[in-house]
Amino acid sequence: MARLNEVPFVKGHGTGNDFVVIPDVDGRLDLSADQVRWLCDRHVGVGGNGVLRVVRTEHVPEFAEFADVAEFFMDYRNADGTLAEMCGNGARVFVRYLDATGLVTDNDIVIATRGGLRSASINHDRTITIDMGHATTPRARALPQVTVGDRHWPATGVLVPNPHAVVFLDDLSEAGDLATAPDVSPTDVFPDGVNVEFVVPRGPQHVAMRVHERGVGETLSCGTGACAVAWAARRRDGASLDGEATWQVDVPGGTLRVTETADGALLLNGPADLVARGTVLIPV
C-alpha cells in the first residue's frame, strides 16, 4: 500500500472554474505533478480544474524579493500537473481564501504569481476584481488557425500572460463537443500550448464564450480567457480604443466583466466562492 500524507484543503470555484486550495503558508509542501493530477481527478481525488497552493512569498526563492509587496504567492498548477503563469478565476478564489481565513485583512492587496504581481480588490458586493495587467500578442509571422474536425477558423492570438487563441463564430455549437483539444497551427505560434476560446456576440460590449483550457479540457469558465476575449472583441468591433470600456463575458458557469482601462490594463471582475474544507490523504 502506498504511503499517504494527510493535507488540509479547501474547495472553491469562480463561475464554475473549480480549484483545490492547499494551504502551505510556510512552504513545506512540495507537490509533484503526479500528486496534482491525483488531487484534480474527479474519480479518485478531490476533483478540480487546478490546484492553488497558498504560500508566503518569502518561502518561494524565485519570487522572495517581492515579499515586501506581496505577502502571498499563488502557486497555480493545471489539472495535468503543469505550471501555469496565471489564472484569473483562480486568483479570485485565492484572494477569497486569504480573506476568509484572516490571512489578509485589507480589501486591497497584491499577490505574487508566475505572471507577475497582481493587485486585487474585494468589493462591497463580494465580487473580487483582479488587475490582470496588459494583453500582448504572440511574436509570430503567421496568424494562428484553429481546427475542429473538418472546420477551420482564423484566430486572434492574445497573451494575458497565458496564451489564448480567440475564434469568433456565429453559434457556439459550431465548436463541437470539445472532448479533445482543438488543433492550432502553426505550432510555433504557441510552443507551450494554448487555451482556445470560441466567441459569439450577444449585444453591445457583450459576448458569450466556450473554452478549451490547455492541460484541463473544456471548463465552465476561464478568467484569462475572458480577458483575451474582451480585448479581441473590442478590437474586432472597431470601437475607439480611447478611454475605458467594460465588456460582459458570459461563460457556461456565470458572468464575468472585463474593463480595459485608459492605459490598457485589464480588470477582471466576478464572484468567487469557497464550498468545502477538510483533509485529503495524498499518495506519496
List keywords for this structure.
single chain, 284 residues, mainly beta, Diaminopimelate Epimerase, Chain A, domain 1, 2 domains, 16-stranded mixed β-sheet, three-stranded antiparallel β-sheet, 3 helices
Please explain how this structure is put together.
With about 280 residues, this protein is mainly beta. The chain has two domains: about 5-135 and about 270-284, Diaminopimelate Epimerase, Chain A, domain 1, CATH 3.10.310; about 145-265, Diaminopimelate Epimerase, Chain A, domain 1 (Roll). Helix content is about 10%, strand content about 45%. The protein has helices at about 35-40, 90-100, 225-235; strands spanning about 5-15, 15-25, 50-55, 70-80, 110-115, 115-120, 130-135, 145-150, 150-155, 155-160, 165-170, 185, 195-205, 205-215, 215-220, 245-250, 255-260, 265-270, 275-284. The chain has a 16-stranded mixed sheet that branches. Strand 2 (about 15-25), helix 1 (about 35-40) and strand 3 (about 50-55) form a beta-alpha-beta unit. The N and C termini lie close together (about 10 Å). The mean pLDDT is about 95.
| First-to-last CA distance | 11 Å
Low-pLDDT stretches are none
Categorize the overall geometry.
globular
The CATH class of the largest domain is Alpha Beta
Number of domains: 2
Q: What helical percentage do the residues reach?
A: 10-25%
Q: Mind telling me which CATH architecture of the largest domain this is?
A: Roll
User: What is the averaged pLDDT score?
Assistant: 95
N-to-C order of helices and strands: EEHEEHEEEEEEEEEEEHEEEE
**Count of DSSP E strands?**
19
Q: Helix count?
A: 3
The assigned structural class equals mainly beta
